[in-house]
Amino acid sequence: MTAATTLDRSSDLPLWQQLSLALRGEIESGRLRPDQALPSESELIDRFAVSRTVVREALADMVRAGLIYKVRARGSFVSPKRPDLRFVGSMAGSSDDLAGTGRVVTTRVIDFAVGTADAADAEALRIVTGAPVVRLRRLRRVDDTPWLLVDTVLPHDRFPTLARANLENRSLYEHLRRNFGVQPSGADRWLSAVVPEPSDAELLELAPGQPVLSIESIAWDADGQPFERYLALHRSDESRFYVGIR
Description:
The protein folds into two domains: about 15-80, Arc Repressor Mutant, subunit A (Orthogonal Bundle), CATH 1.10.10.10; about 85-240, Chorismate lyase, CATH 3.40.1410.10. By secondary structure, it is of the alpha+beta class. It has helices at about 15-30, 40-50, 50-65, 95-100, 120-125, 170-180, 200-205, and strands at about 70, 75-80, 85, 105-115, 130-140, 145-155, 185-195, 210-220, 225-235, 240. Strand 1 and strand 2 form a beta hairpin. The longest helix has 15 residues, at about 15-30. It contains seven helices and ten strands. The protein has a six-stranded antiparallel sheet with strand order 4-5-6-9-8-7. Helices cover about 25% and strands about 30% of the residues.
């Protein structure tokens, strides 16, 4: 690999930042590809004539930016490009976002049963507390890596046969359209960073204490009637969310 730029020692920009920008340029140009190893610290020291401290500060900056990742005793590697997921700002699902990208998306149904609405369910779905609801828990994987753990609640009176449906690797919204005539029209969504419960972290194959993005959603149909509430835990280290404002 050849240097994209020469470090300018007369510049007000710190050397570590100049080095970080030079390496970023190599990634953006495609000279360094996803999962390719960066030169070792010693090679970077020799190539740019800087100290080990400068190299380590530059690499740490790139790790914080999500551009590279480190493997103990092996070095630094270029992070895979994270796809932009748009479903937060639309009625499409995450599987729809990934359609046509060549990624393999699977959905495992962990739990599917009739229960009762708690106070939050009742307020969101405009039903009474204790009313029967369908509870659905799913784990979505992309290329065999867990991405999303989602708990969905729907009013049982409106969808009395839903709990008998086979939703393994199938779209919930498509099933609601075909079998119940539901036309999703809009949703309110709230996003926050949370630390998942240990059991949820295990399902997502995360280290204890590693944060995830929590997405709470209330969706309604063309008549303005809420029909679904869900709470999803999303591994944002595998993707990023895009919301366009026009």
